[in-house]
Structure formats: C-alpha cells, structure tokens
C-alpha cells in the first residue's frame, strides 16, 4: 500500500512539474482560437483510425478552421502545433523554421542524418556540399536514363492494351526505382522485370511500420514500441537495406580510380566520391538512401495521378498528344533536354496534378526562436504544420473551381499575381526539395513516352489515404485498383 501511494505521489509530482514547464504553451494557446478540441484529449481523437479515415478527419478539421479564419492551434497528445492557411504566414514559417518537427524522428533509425531528416546545423553543412551534385547541368546528364527506362515501361504496358483497368502505379514505381538506383548509385536493378527482391520487400516493410508509428499514438514512445514485434521486424528490415547500400558504396570505392578515368555518365555516388567530400561511409549511405527513397514514390505517384487525370479529361490528353507530336513527330526516340524544354502544356498538366493530388500532404517544422506571424507571435519550441494538400484546393486561394482540373491555371499570366506559397508541391525556402529539377524532368520524360504510345482511359481517383505520402486507396467501385487506367494504341 505504501509503495502504491509513493508511486501515485511521484506520478502527480511529475505531472505537476511537466505542466509547469509547459505553462508558456498553455498561455500562448489562450491567444489563438481553436476548433474541434475536447477536454484532456485536445485534437487527438481526429487522428485515430485507418489512413483513409485520418485523411478525411484532417480535411474536416481544417474545414472547421477555415470557417473560423485561417489560424488555429492543434494538440495531438502532448504536442502543440500551430496551423496557418495564410500563404504569408506559411512563407515566414518555411523561411525561418528550418528544423524538422519531432514526427520526422521515426525516419531517423532508417535514414540517419540524411538531408530529409537531418538536424538543421548538419543539414546546412551537408546541403552546401550536395548542391553542386544536384546542379541542373548534372541532372540533365540523366535524361538518357529517363528515356531508356521509360521505353522499358512502354514495352511492359503493351501487355495491358485492350484489357480491363489495371493499377498503373505498380508499373510506374518499378520504372522510377530503376531510374533512382541507376542515377544515385550506378546500380542497374532491373526492378521492372524483377520487382520482388529482399531489398525491395525490406523497404516496403520499413515504410509500413514508420507510417504506423506516425498515426498510432501508442506506438510513438520508443519504450512502448520496443515491446512490440514491429520493433524487431523494423530493425531486421533496416539492416537489409543498409547492407545493400553499404555493399554498393564499398564496391564503388574499390573501383573508384578506374571509374574516375572513365568518360561515361557518372552517378551521384561517384560524383560525391570524386569531390572528396568529408563524408564517412555511413553519411554516404544516409544520403544515398534518402535520395532513392525521396525520389521514387513521390515522382511515381505524380505520374500515376497525371495519367488518371488525363484519362478522364480527353481534351487535355489530346492537347498533350498534339504538343508531343509537334515536338517529336512520328519518331520513337526518347526526348532530349531540348525536347523536354518545349513541353509547356505537359508541364502545366504536371503542375495541376501536383496541386490536386499533393503527394507530400503535410510539412512539419519547429520554431527555434520566437516567430512573428500576421496576427500573433509563436514562441520557441512549438510545432508548425503546413498543409499543402488543403491550401492547394482552397477556394479562397484558387477560386470557386478549385477542385476542377485546369492546367491553364499555370499559364504565366495566371501565375503572376499568385502568392509563391499558395502552391508549394516541393516545399519552399532554403529547405525545399533538392531534387525538384530531377523530378520534373523524369516526370515529363516518362509521361511523354507513355502518352505518345497509348491512349489512356480512366476515372478520377476518389479514395485517398495518408501514409506519409498521399496514396490512392481504391476506386469507388471497390473492385478497381488504386490508380486504375486502361490503354489503347
């Protein structure tokens, strides 16, 4: 009995100290309106359920915020977030808050201090060293790879011509994996013909477990997570992926002198070694793993969503085909740098796709000092949630037809007066996506190869889920896959 009383007393004292240390947060919250919260729970109940339910809950909660204004606080467990839907505020957050939010820590067991999750001081030093490797001139050397793998994709899709709907994402993601492995590591994986390997299975397993931790509060504390079987599975799978990348790096270092004399196209890993940057082998692995992960699913999803949209907007697909024919004629050659630069309408289609289906739906940052926004000042140590997937469909920012597909929104004259943070598919500020030029060129090249080879038919994707990225769940007819299209020649 005495021991129980002591434990209860200690728990009460700990909670009192915890509350006192965070009193500034509670005082701050009194200055900003909030909606949808419950006593003790805050907004945690909005984030319970499967990935589709959570996405719908987030949309409903943000709609309530928009009805009251553009700013709110959100409590998820003990974590406080400020949400602003005002582009001016978003610009200040993304320019001044470079530290990633606590939620990104779940990726660190896998990616370590790669650019995507690195603490801000390390990120600044490493990004400065990596920027020359992502220069436009360097990335444009990989256009040949985009064309080669795009042609393989076109050949594989031929088996689906004239058949019922199929999930095009499964084809596109294999193509993008082949591209990122070859350009990042010089490794020809041929995933398009061999999609089931221990490495790829391990990658999928890790991503699945990380997503579970993001949206299941009871799996977030490390002490509780380590008690589950997921912790063992995650470690085993991470070890498989690390072993693969470590072997690639060791082989590349062993062959470095021979490769450095070659005039062949050089992959990113080789360029990093040639520059003799002060990266350890572990740091090289962290950056290469980050590049291959960030460059695959995001780009593959945008391509798949673009095909879905064009498949149900025949007029837009016809415009793309005519543009491609005017540039490439009847030839089957892969697009060159000059060809890609002329694909203005296709680029607008891609941008409109990224607006309607924002594959990185939420950006989390943390204040490291006071930050003055339009109507209030955020203290240090507070999370900031930027929600592009909501802003990109806001009728306040995009007009009453915000949910409609209209690539001409991105004509120069229509973009001139638009706030730069009304549209942020690659984030914004100095901590934006370092691979955005790579992604745009790859998307244009692959879509060009597919759309001049096939006529696409589809229905718009109306069921989505949030699993770190914005994925399709299934079509409303339930029997169809997540990104269903059908093809004709």
TrEMBL record:
Q: What is its main location?
A: endoplasmic reticulum
Q: Which GO terms describe its molecular function?
A: heme binding; iron ion binding; monooxygenase activity; oxidoreductase activity, acting on paired donors, with incorporation or reduction of molecular oxygen
Q: Does the keyword ATP-binding apply?
A: no
GO annotation, cellular component aspect:
endoplasmic reticulum membrane
Where found?
Answer: Endoplasmic reticulum membrane; Microsome membrane
Keyword rRNA-binding on entry: no
Q: Which residues take part in binding heme?
A: 433
UniProt membrane topology term: Peripheral membrane protein
InterPro entries with a match to the protein in the record = Cyt_P450, Cyt_P450_CS, Cyt_P450_E_grp-I, Cyt_P450_sf, Cytochrome_P450_Monoox
Which SUPFAM superfamilies does the UniProt entry name for this protein?
A: Cytochrome P450
Signal sequence range: none
Swiss-Prot/TrEMBL cofactor(s): heme
Q: At the top level of its lineage, which domain of life is listed?
A: Eukaryota
Question: Which keywords does this Swiss-Prot/TrEMBL entry list?
Answer: Endoplasmic reticulum, Heme, Iron, Membrane, Metal-binding, Microsome, Monooxygenase, Oxidoreductase
| Annotated PANTHER family | CYTOCHROME P450 4C3-RELATED, CYTOCHROME P450 FAMILY 4
Q: Which family does it belong to?
A: Belongs to the cytochrome P450 family.
Q: What does this protein do?
A: May be involved in the metabolism of insect hormones and in the breakdown of synthetic insecticides.
Q: What's the protein here called? A: Cytochrome P450
Q: Which source organism?
A: Mythimna separata
């Amino acid at each position: 009995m005495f021991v129980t009383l002591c434990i209860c007393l200690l728990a009460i004292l700990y909670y009192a100290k915890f509350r006192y240390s965070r009193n500034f947060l509670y005082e701050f919250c009194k200055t900003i309106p909030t909606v949808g919260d419950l006593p003790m729970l805050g907004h945690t109940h909005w984030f319970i359920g499967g990935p589709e339910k959570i996405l719908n809950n987030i949309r409903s909660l943000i709609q309530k915020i928009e009805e009251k204004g553009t700013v709110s606080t959100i409590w998820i467990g003990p974590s406080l977030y400020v949400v602003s839907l005002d582009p001016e505020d978003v610009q200040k957050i993304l320019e001044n808050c470079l530290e990633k939010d606590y939620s990104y820590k779940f990726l660190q067991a896998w990616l370590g201090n790669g650019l995507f999750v690195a603490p801000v001081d390390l990120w600044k030093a490493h990004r400065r060293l990596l920027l020359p490797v992502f220069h436009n001139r360097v990335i444009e050397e990989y256009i040949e790879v985009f064309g080669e793998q795009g042609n393989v994709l076109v050949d594989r899709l031929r088996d689906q011509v004239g058949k019922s709907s199929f999930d095009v994402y499964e084809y596109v993601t294999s193509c993008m994996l082949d591209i990122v492995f070859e350009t990042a590591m010089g490794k020809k994986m041929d995933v398009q013909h061999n999609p089931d390997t221990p490495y790829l299975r391990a990658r999928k397993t890790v991503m699945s477990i990380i997503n579970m931790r993001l949206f299941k509060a009871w799996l977030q504390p490390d002490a509780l997570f380590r008690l589950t079987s997921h912790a063992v599975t995650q470690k085993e799978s991470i070890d498989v992926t690390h072993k693969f990348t470590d072997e690639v790096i060791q082989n590349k270092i062993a062959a470095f002198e021979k490769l450095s004399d070659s005039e062949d196209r050089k992959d990113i890993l080789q360029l990093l070694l040639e520059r003799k940057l002060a990266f350890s082998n572990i740091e090289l692995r962290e950056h290469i793993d980050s590049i291959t992960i960030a460059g695959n699913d995001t780009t593959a999803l945008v391509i798949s969503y673009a095909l879905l949209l064009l498949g149900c907007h025949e007029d837009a697909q016809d415009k793309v085909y005519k543009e491609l024919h005017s540039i490439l004629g009847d030839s089957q050659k892969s697009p060159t740098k000059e060809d890609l630069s002329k694909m203005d309408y296709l680029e607008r289609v891609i941008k409109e796709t990224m607006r309607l289906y924002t594959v990185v739906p939420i950006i989390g940052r943390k204040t490291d000092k006071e930050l003055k926004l339009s109507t209030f000042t955020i203290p240090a140590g507070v999370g900031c949630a930027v929600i592009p997937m909501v802003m990109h469909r806001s009728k306040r920012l995009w007009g009453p037809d915000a949910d409609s597909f209209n690539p001409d929104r991105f004509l120069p004259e229509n973009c001139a007066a638009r706030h730069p943070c009304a549209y942020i598919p690659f984030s914004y500020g100095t901590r934006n996506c370092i691979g955005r030029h790579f992604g745009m060129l790859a998307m244009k090249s692959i879509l060009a190869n597919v759309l001049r080879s096939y006529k696409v038919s589809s229905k718009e994707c109306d069921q989505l889920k949030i699993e770190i990225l914005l994925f399709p769940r299934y079509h409303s007819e339930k029997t169809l896959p997540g990104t269903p299209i059908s093809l004709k020649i």
